[in-house]
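Next up, a specimen:

>
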Amino acid sequence: MADQLGLLLRRLRNQAGLTQEQVAERSGVSVRTIRRLESARNIDHRLGTLNLLADALELGSEDRELLATMLARTSTPPTFAVHAASTETRPTASASGPPRAPSRQTSVLVPARAVLDAAETLAREAKRRWQREEEQRQVHDPFPLPLCWQPAPAQLVDYAANVQRLPPGATPQLDLSGDMGSIAEVYRRIRSGRLVILGRAGSGKSIMLIRLVLDSLAAFTLPERVPMIFNLGSWDATAITLRDWLIGQLLRDHPHLARRAPGGPTLAAALVDADLILPILDGFDEIADGLRREALEAFNATSLPLVLTSRRDEYAEAVRGAGAPLNWAAGIELVDLTLDDLAAYLPRTARQAGRDDTVAVWDPVLKLLQATTCPASVNLTRVLSTPLMVVLARTMYSETPERDPAELLDITRFPSAKSVEEHLLAGFVPTVYRPSVPDREAGGFRQRTWNPHHAERWLGYLAHQLVRHGQDRRDLAWWQIGDSLRRSTRIGTATLVSALCTAVSAWMTGLVAGQVDPEQILVEGAMMGLSAGLAFGAVYAAITAFGGTFQPTHVRLRLRRRHSVVARPPIQTFTVRFAVVLLGGFVMGVGSACATALVRARYWETPLASLEVIRATLINMLVFGLIFGLAAGLVFGLLAALEVPVDVSFVATPVSLLSANRATVSQQILFLAPVLALTIAVGGRLVVDLLEGGVLGELRWAWPDAFLIGAAGGLGGALSYMFCFTAWGQWVILTRVWLPLTGRLPWNTMAFLEGAYRRGVLRQTGAVYQFRHVRLQQHLSHSYCERRRRSRRTPVHSEG
């Protein structure tokens, strides 16, 4: 059917009297893609691409239905459902006004019901999440700060005719005037759907995006795009495409999107491919310096509608490097707050009991700022021109009765605007952690209190880890905190923990089995633990050497698998896991053979150097290696094949994702321990029966010993896997034990992170935390390094 679809597209283009180049110019689809579609060389017919072509050709309802029917026949199984196209024609320029924003109702097709349901659920989740974030940031208390803008410089935006996607000769009319309350309306005026929001650090770009999302979702109807905020700081355009990165971010923050959509891909991939996601990309300036040009070029290689925020200088540098601004993009630049804005806002934030309403704490300061132009007034006026500094000043002075903002006008203490900013940044954390009656949570329990000095040190450590090794990350993920330790420390910890888990398991099984010699039980358990530690440590080292990380799993065990619930077929999943684990199990078997030889030399007085012992040890290496390798490969492969995504109702926050992973790991242990034990025991019998005789001679695998080894290996292997190869296990041994032992984090780290979020130091972005602002993160990191340099007398590596 692909060739018939190509012929239909060519016929429709010829009827419109357009060349492939003209269609490409109108639609934003490359000439190469159009050529491949018409020649039936592209069998991946994506909904978004065909919608753009249909709009560019100005197809009527009959042609759209014909194209829809033909496309539905090419999709097997059908990812999309046929949709009766609207008779609404493509907007054109006229003297009466600008073209209307494009409607999703003119699509050739709409996605299948499952994909639309996922989009609707995602919209509800996004609305709930960002409403909570606005409340957490006190955006509406007492009222939103007035954020206004001006048009971005002409050299940083595209031509208005291109922004409105007008044909040659049409007169563009693009009105970008408005304020934060009308940002969604302003965006809807932009036909291309591309907007760049510029502003200096702390100017309110992120708050503007949240308002854009909430106002857009207030009038959301399917099949409109769901606006989703993504932080660009983690994207490397040279390593991963924008599409794949967006899908990965959706899967991280919305685990239920890992379910399979009709047609094969995950729901996350189907949403992106169906053009149901509007990327709201925050922090273009946070991309690494050498990667911004590549990122801009990647944006220009697509016609995907998007909103992009950046500081002006970094964006201008990328534009110069790429030789062009963001294609089809309009642009606005946020302007500074005025003294009138401050006079209306700050006095209403000071509500301490016992203060005289006629003399508000900010009134003397604001009157002085308006009346004089002395250096102190100029400095403070400049500092308070951004919402970030206004919020910090509010926290320190409006919400703290013993502080007087008049001290900010002390030119001796604060000779420059930068010194005032540093003072506000330095005082924010101690202020929000000051001793006071703790707030009550929703359940009525009091939040924990933390020493301000300790809290600042812990936050400084976390901030510092985000910028180590030349990186400049924003996402503070609980499963990555342990990665701040040196790799050698993590490998040593994994080796030690797995050795202890296996040794304790061997000691327990030995005691239960009734072995009467305690010394032999201890020695055999220690030797088995040592071999297991070396095996698991080797596998851990190999994984981390190739950049492997332990991500939180978004799946749970289920014996009965519903149709089309996972993106990867079970057989493929089983094969990948089996191959990875087989090697580690074989190393465990080799170590067990060596341990057996040493135990026999200790208690049976067999000489290690004799040829018979060497031959027996080599045979045991092969036999034990196959037993443990095959057993581990089969069981862990089966574990992977039985995994399914979490329920659709699950929405990832840091706390909920941690709890879900703890529950998932518990399920895995309850499955792994008995199944692995039985597989070692019974599988060992089968391996011995197959290998016995011939060169290997007589082999022994008595059932009592088999079940004893199986029990120790099953329990020890399951516990070692839990602590060393799951995100939750790494969180426990590194973040909950090692880092608190060394004083770098508190013992209850998650409670501390949640407390920092409630106090406004951190913010939640899906399943991860971020510092409230990059300026605060940089200040805490710098302060931490300064304190560390002052306190240490000898060069000691602090990362582990």
Remarks:
- The first helix runs from residue 2 to 16.
- The two ends are 60 Å apart (CA to CA).
- The chain has 28 helices and twelve strands.
